[in-house]
Design a protein that fits this description.
Its EC number is 1.-.-.-. It is an enzyme of class 1 (oxidoreductase). It comes from Streptomyces parvus. It is a single chain. With 326 residues, the chain is α/β, with parallel strands linked by helices. The chain has a single domain, classed as Luciferase-like domain (TIM Barrel). The chain is built from 13 helices and eleven strands. The protein has an eight-stranded parallel β-barrel, surrounded by eight helices. The chain has a two-stranded antiparallel ribbon with strand order 5-6. Strand 8 (187-190), helix 7 (195-203) and strand 9 (210-218) form a beta-alpha-beta unit. The longest helix is centred in the middle third of the chain and has 19 residues, at 121-139.
Length: 326
């Protein structure tokens, strides 16, 4: 079991994210994960810095903690040849501490450039397959070319490659994306603790680690925590089909207007009761996830990190599945 800390890039500026990463290392977290967005989910979150600059700075300011994108879409806003180069560079600068998390993306971030984001799921999956093939090809060394249905590479070479290439964790939510994760990735990444996601991944031959984002909101009392999560993180209750389709923060604001505090309390571990946090994390462990990402939507990141260090670290790490995976 490894435990990570989610850097909320939509809620904090770049210098603050670096500061939190340093605190997370001191508190004993195994890795930090940062989303790679162009926009925040909601305007009132107020931030969305460039993830790769943030991660490079974290690599320079820390010595032990792992780093991960959670996740990068290497198909529209970025070309996969650029991500192959960026990930290799970050792996070198972090001395092997980097995990490349990738996914098929969200319209929120990808519509801002070029031809825009594909309207159908299948072309998005096809794009992701080609992107992963390109990244693997360029990581094999030498000059490479690739001619796909959607993506091309002409005489490209990544000159600075680490001896040990980064693990690639592929974001998935259904059978097709889990097949991509199993066939072209080294691990699985998910934002929902559904047993079916890990089951599909294993059934497709996937043997790597499974990363799951565990929803939490720390504050001295549950009401304060839930209100903070409702204010900035209610988008998390919309589900992946909605999260991948809406184009701008204003659309997420409208789509989540009916989310209630009770809905937050049902999904998130809120307040200061360690038992509730363990209960929510246990659901992810029972679903088959072995890399748990603590995703705090509460108003006080320092308070949450201290709470995790004092009350949760040992208890979370000791969790084991207590029922058959459905």
């Amino acid at each position: 079991m490894q435990v990570g800390y989610k850097l909320a890039a939509e809620a904090f500026g770049p210098a603050e994210l670096v500061r939190q990463a340093v605190l997370a290392e001191e508190a004993g977290f195994d890795f930090v994960e940062v989303s790679d967005h162009y926009h925040p989910w909601l305007d009132n979150q107020g931030h969305s810095p460039f993830a790769w600059t943030v991660l490079g700075t974290i690599a320079a300011r820390t010595s032990r903690i792992g780093l991960a994108t959670g996740v990068t879409c290497p198909t529209v806003r970025y070309h996969p040849a650029v991500i192959a180069q960026a990930a290799a560079t970050l792996a070198l600068l972090s001395e092997g501490r980097f995990v490349l998390g990738v996914g098929s993306g969200e319209r929120l971030n990808e519509h801002v450039v070029g031809p825009g984001f594909p309207d159908a799921v299948k072309p998005r999956h096809d794009l992701l397959r080609e992107a992963l093939e390109i990244i693997r090809l360029l990581w094999s060394g030498g000059y490479q070319s690739y001619e796909g249905k959607h993506l091309r590479v002409q005489d490209a070479r990544v000159f600075d490659l680490p001896d040990e290439l980064p693990l690639i964790a592929v974001a998935a939510s259904g059978p097709e994306s889990t097949r991509i994760a199993a066939e072209l990735g080294d691990g699985l990444f998910a934002t929902e603790g559904k047993p079916s996601i890990v089951r599909h991944y294993r059934d497709a031959g996937g043997t790597g680690p499974c990363y799951g984002e565990v929803p939490m909101a720390w504050a001295p009392d549950a009401h304060t925590a839930a209100r903070a999560a409702l204010e900035t993180s209610r988008w998390a209750l919309t589900g992946w089909k909605v999260m991948s389709e809406l184009p701008n923060p204003v659309n997420f604001d409208a789509a989540t207007a009916t989310v209630r505090e009770e809905d937050i309390l049902e999904k998130f571990a809120c307040g200061a009761d360690p038992g509730r946090y363990v209960e929510v994390a246990q659901g992810f462990v029972d679903a088959g996830f072995d890399r748990l990402v603590m995703q705090n939507a509460g108003p006080d990141p320092d308070g949450f990190i201290d709470f995790y260090r004092r009350e949760l670290d040992g208890r979370i790490r000791q969790l084991e599945p207590n029922r058959p995976r459905a």
